[in-house]
Amino acid sequence: MTGASLVVTDLHVEFSGFVAVGGVSFDAHPGEVRFLIGPNGAGKTTCIDAITGLTRGTGSARLGETELLGKQVHKIVRLGVGRTFQTASVFDELTVLQNLDIAAGLHRSSVSLLRARRGVDPSIEQALEETGLAGELATPAGILSHGQKQWLEIAMLLVQDAKVLLLDEPVAGMSHDERTATGDLLQRIAVKRIVLVVEHDMDFMRRFATRVTVLHQGKVLSQGTVAEVQADPKVQEVYLGTAGAATAAAMAVVPEAVAETLKLTED
Amino acid sequence: MTKLKPLPSLRGIAALSGIAMFAVLLLAVAPAVLSDHWLNNLGKYCCWAIAAVGIGLAWGRGGMLVMGQGVFFALGAYAMAMHLTLETAGDRVPGFMVLYDPLAPLPAFWEPFRSAGFTLAAIVVLPVVAAGILGYALFKRRVKGAYFAILTQALAVALATLISSTIRETGGDTGLSDFKFFFGFVLNDPANKVMVYLIAAALLIVCLLAVWQFYRSRFGELLVATRDAEERVRFLGYDPANIKLVAFVVSALMASIGGAMFVPIVGIITPAEIGAAASILMIAGVAFGGRASLFGPALGAMAVGWGQSSLGSTWPDGWTYILGLLFVVVILFLPSGLSSLPARFAAIRRRPAEQPTPPITAAELEEVRA
């Protein structure tokens, strides 16, 4: 928690000739909720994959002074970079407590792994409070609601004491109230941490983003505050095909997102 | 929050008292009730059960389909058999070697097995080192699923072939047999036979206690997590290879211990007992009993062992088919093995309309696909 920033410079990712990300640069600092948006195939998730070591990328991604690219996945995690996935991936057969306990075990000695758990770590209780899962301690993660699973994933990042949280579509499939709760949660945890969110949901982005980077076909199209980005004619062109008013419905390119937003405006 | 705490401890007490009951049955009741012949057979089943407990850990909890546990079974068995052969031969070269070449000296790798201490250490160290190297190489390269299973199976075939083809050094297909002594005790003495049985049964109890502690520990949870979502575990900052390695090495150690006790109880070890078929039979017992449960693997292995010596001797042709049929039926209708029956009955009684879904099918499918 030294206030180190995540700085990505000239990131390239290629899949056998196809350039998925071609020279993307952005940075994210503690205290802001940073959004990475763009149409399908813009390379948002690929950026996160490269930063976390899941796919190979060239260029640079630094956390403070430390270069992340080229390191093994679990070593990058140990440096304090945590992520979630588009589909919630919690351990279905384990309880909420067991899930969190595994996440907290990162900094434990191997000998203590051989003992049974006694009681609940303070860091786990704190994360449970923070994410509103305190009542679900003994629930198997597999029967949690979709939103709760996403919160559990965020809670797991909190107990693993991640300095950087890379969240891949955290509110996909959530109800309006759940989205609001998630947004508030993100703003709370972003006070001391770097939070980078990949999203399709423009409404959610508008409400909670501090700064936004728009990707298009593997390149940075626009960068700035929500208002700046929305006013950018290049962004409007990509999202609308023509230069028009960037309405909530029109800015979302994904059909579900459009449907969602339309539903919301009807309500 | 308070609701959770009594649950695991209650379950822990149930599991512990189950192990205690099992211990009483094996260590006190069985020797009093069974004839010498059946007690000896039970000892043999205990040896398979020890290996099965290890398979339960690696396969049931760790998701590694270890199809070649015969390799580690062989390491323990042949280490023990070499020592017992040398003990029987005394200062002379073992009889079967003289048969092929009367003047040849004892092979160099046999020499250290004269020492009882070296033999006991070898039974522990050999499988740990072998499984450690093999597991490290495989898991770091992320070999898993069917590839892992086939590779381990191939190793069992290779080792059995190697032993078959080195008649002078290992006894070949005839194997090693005719042991007279067991660390100074005369093996023909019925009292000593009971003692050997008791050692095997006690080791089985120890192995059960060991996996019980594994399952309730944080490592056990981590192992299940690795089985179900290896990539996710990586993103929690663990190297899944290390977690799997520990489970694999422990299971190899257990197979070796089972093999070592098999030799004085059965009195012979041959490549047939450690090859592909034998390795699969070990797996079959575990699947039959319930691979992820505490008692399932041991009881399943004992049941298959019992079936083999009762039905297998009276109706050898039919036994193979019965075993195959049982295997198919269990996999189809009870993917979690026989030990999941009580829970399923309970579930059916609770909500008769609802069909309980077998919990392991998804994982099983994934395993086959992977």
Would you kindly provide a written description of the structure presented here, covering whatever features stand out?
The complex is a heterodimer of chains A (267) and B (370). Chain A is an alpha/beta fold and 267 residues long. Chain A has one domain (6-266): Rossmann fold (3-Layer(aba) Sandwich). Chain A is 38% helix and 22% strand. Chain A has 12 helices and 10 strands. In chain A, the strands form 2 sheets. A 6-stranded mixed beta sheet of chain A has the order 6-7-8-3-9-10, with helices on both faces. A 4-stranded antiparallel beta sheet of chain A has the order 2-1-4-5, with helices on one face. In chain A, strand 1 and strand 2 form a beta hairpin. The N and C termini of chain A lie far apart (42 Å). Chain B is mostly helical and 370 residues long. Chain B has one domain (6-271). Chain B is built from 16 helices and 4 strands. In chain B, strand 2 and strand 3 (185-186) form a beta hairpin. In chain B, helix 2 (36-61) packs parallel to helix 8 (190-216) and helix 9 (218-228) crosses helix 11 (240-266). The longest helix of chain B is centred in the N-terminal third of the chain and has 28 residues, at 6-33. The radius of gyration of chain B is 21 Å and the shape is globular. At the A-B interface, helix 2 and helix 3 of A face helix 1, helix 8, helix 9 and helix 10 of B. Chain A: One of its GO terms (cellular component) is plasma membrane. Chain A: InterPro entries: AAA+_ATPase, ABC_AA/LPS_Transport, ABC_transporter-like_ATP-bd, ABC_transptr_urea_ATP-bd_UrtD, BCA_ABC_TP_C, P-loop_NTPase. Chain A: GO terms for molecular function: ATP binding; ATP hydrolysis activity. Chain A: This is ABC transporter ATP-binding protein.
Strand line-up of the largest beta sheet of chain B? 1-4
Helix-residue proportion of chain A:
25-40%
* N-to-C series of helices and strands of chain A: EEEHEEHEHHHHEHEHEEHHHH
Largest sheet of chain B: 2 strands, antiparallel
Over all CA atoms, what is the radius of gyration of chain A? Answer: 19 Å
Low-confidence stretches of chain A: 242-250
The best one-word shape of chain B is globular
- Which blocks of ≥5 consecutive residues of chain B have pLDDT under 50? 1-7, 353-370
Distance separating the two termini of chain A: 42 Å
Count of runs of 4 or more consecutive helical residues of chain B: 16
Helix vs. strand class of chain B? mainly alpha
How many beta-strand runs of chain A?
Answer: 10
H and E order of chain B? HHHHHHHEEEHHHHEHHHHH
Q: How many separate structural domains of chain A?
A: 1
Organism (chain A): Paractinoplanes tereljensis
InterPro entries (chain A): AAA+_ATPase (IPR003593), ABC_AA/LPS_Transport (IPR051120), ABC_transporter-like_ATP-bd (IPR003439), ABC_transptr_urea_ATP-bd_UrtD (IPR017781), BCA_ABC_TP_C (IPR032823), P-loop_NTPase (IPR027417)
GO molecular function (chain A): ATP binding; ATP hydrolysis activity
Pfam families (chain A): ABC_tran, BCA_ABC_TP_C
